Amino acid sequence: MDDVTSRIEKELERIGAALRAQRKALPPNGDDSGLPRSYHELYAAQQALSWALEPEGFKSPYASSITSTSDSRRDSEALADLWASAEPYRD
Fold first, then answer.
1. Are 9 and 54 in contact (CB under 8 A)?
2. What does the radius of gyration of the chain's CA atoms come to, in whole angstroms?
3. Global pTM?
4. S-S: 72 plus which of 27, 46, 67, 68, CB 3.0-4.6 Å?
5. Burial class (CB in 10 A: 0-12, 13-18, 19+), 27
């Protein structure tokens, strides 16, 4: 495994843990309307990084945004906002 792949997989693990933690905070009835914006941003980032590692297994962020339902379009918009506001990664 190369360094880039290793970094992406590590970031996917961190994102996955954050997504699970936010979902655990939801009420037992499964109402996800209370999910914070950060959940949708993390989900969009997770999908983009997953596609970068396995393009055949995931829809590209661009393809997702132009062929999506309103829910996944919202995720795509969150991804665009995330990348627009993100600082460059520094280790």
1. no
2. 14
3. 0.64
4. 68
5. exposed
Tokens of 70: 């309103």
Check the CA dihedral 76-78-82-84 and report its sign.
Answer: positive
**Dist CA 26 CA 30 (whole Å):** 7
| Cα–Cα distance measured from residue 82 to residue 27, given in angstroms and rounded to the nearest whole number | 27
The answer to whether the CB of 64 falls within 8 A of the CB of 74 is no
Tokens of 68: 């999506």
Tokens of 54: 């396995």
Interacting residues of 48 by C-beta distance below 8 A, sequence separation 6+: 61, 79
Query: Are the beta carbons of 61 and 49 closer than 8 angstroms?
Result: no
Q: What is the pLDDT of residues 10-56, one digit of tens each?
A: 999 999 999 999 888 888 877 778 788 888 889 889 999 999 999 88
82: CB partners within 8 A, 6+ apart: 41, 44, 45
